[in-house]
Amino acid sequence: MSAKIGFIGAGKMAEALIGGLIAKGIFTKDEIVACAPSKTTRDRVSSNYGIRMFEKAVQIVPEADLIVLAVKPRSVPGLFEDEGLEIGKGKTVISIIAGLTLAKMDSYVPDAKKIRVMPNHCCMVKEGAMGYACDPSVDGDDKKRIAKILSSVGLAEEVPEYLMDCVTGIAGSSPAFLYMVIDSMAEAGVLNGMPRDQAVRLAAQSMLGSAKMVLETGKHPEQLRDEVCSPGGTTIVGVKTLEDLGLRSAMANAVDATIAKSAEMSRE
Ligand SMILES: NC(=O)c1ccc[n+]([C@@H]2O[C@H](COP(=O)([O-])OP(=O)(O)OC[C@H]3O[C@@H](n4cnc5c(N)ncnc54)[C@H](OP(=O)(O)O)[C@@H]3O)[C@@H](O)[C@H]2O)c1
Fold first, then answer.
1. Do residue 145 and residue 48 come from a single domain?
2. What pLDDT digit, counting tens, does each position of 165-199 carry?
3. Burial category of 233 from C-beta neighbours within 10 Å (exposed 0-12, middle 13-18, buried 19 and up)
4. How far apart are CA 239 and CA 136, in angstroms?
5. pLDDT value of residue 267
6. Do 231 and 252 belong to one domain?
7. What are 32-91's pLDDT values in tens digits?
8. Domain enclosing residue 77, as ranges
């Protein structure tokens, strides 16, 4: 065994993680292997990161003790049932596959330690937000190692598995909702004469800065909102308009509907 971590699947999310692990110095390129059926993907990933690539998932298992499952959900049965993939005792499996519960993982890899992760696509710029749940065999040292690996691409919070659908609503899917907010803000800029690209940049940076204010000051978002609203000023007019039009209720309903859909899909 020459590598430390092996990726089954080498698409967008696997690439984000591989890039983060190398950039943060957690693993060297020689300690990472990955596989993908298409030569185009193998050539791209080996040329981008200098890691060894394989065609088949079964070739990854002897190479590393830590295996990341990063294929699409529909590819999972084929891996274990058609390709004969076996990941046994002594291995740790991190799955980033949406909807693959620890119980379902147990049916495929009963003897391995298992971690279920729900990341979001902001991992691609190392600002991901993800939740992860561990099976009981994952101990303190494993947890430290997992936290370090996931933190290479963003914020990683351990949660009990029953909260994974919440993670999907609040982190997995929410970038789509926030892009809509950025776009709507920019639209108003265009309406008032600002070029669209400039308006998008200003709206996006305002969202990034606001998120940093919440995370870095530790203040409640309501407190920060109050700090921005001068009495009788411009901002309070906008805040009242959003309250009147039901922004809070719209966003809470959207996240709640996403959580419900995620729970429904996990049961299927
Ligand atoms: N993208 C997101 O924002 C996001 C967010 C949260 C969770 N996820 C989860 O992350 C997982 C990966 O998503 P992604 O966006 O990275 O998908 P993706 O870009 O389509 O990558 C999937 C990879 O799996 C490879 N693959 C397919 N069949 C395989 C097999 N039999 N053996 C080995 N590799 C195989 C593909 O190879 P080829 O390139 O050769 O086709 C591709 O490299 C999904 O399960 C998804 O639920 C994604």
1. yes
2. 999 999 999 999 999 999 999 999 999 999 999 99
3. exposed
4. 46
5. 78
6. yes
7. 999 999 999 999 999 999 999 999 999 999 999 999 999 999 999 999 999 999 999 999
8. 5-165
CA distance 234 to 63: 60
Work out which ligand 1 atom sits closest to the CA atom of 120.
Answer: 5
Amino acid of residue 154 = G
Task: Identify the pLDDT of residue 111.
Answer: 96
**Residue at a domain's end among 140, 165, 190:** 165
H helix or E strand, kind and range, residue 228: helix 221-228
Q: Is 100 in the pocket of ligand 1 (CB under 6 A)?
A: no
CATH for 12 = 3.40.50.720
Q: Is the CB of 238 under 6 A from ligand 1?
A: no
DSSP lists the bridge partners of residue 118 as 131
Same domain, 87 and 199: no
Taking CA atoms only, the protein residue closest to ligand 1 atom 42 is 11
- Residue with the smallest CA separation from ligand 1 atom 37 is 36
| Domain final residue pick, 165, 186, 219 | 165
Of 48, 11, 16, nearest in space to 29 by CA: 48
Atom of ligand 1 nearest to the CA of 41: 39
Buried/exposed code over 54-63 (b: 16+ C-beta within 10 A; e: otherwise): beebbebbeb
| Structure-token match 């499952």, residue found | 69
Q: SS3 for 191? A: helix
* 35 C-alpha to ligand 1 centroid (Å): 11
Instruction: State the pLDDT confidence band at 254, using cuts at 50, 70 and 90.
Output: very high
Q: How far is the CA of 19 from the centre of ligand 1 (A)?
A: 15
218 and 189 in a single domain? The answer is yes
User: How far is the C-alpha of 136 from the C-alpha of 79, rounded, in Å?
Assistant: 25
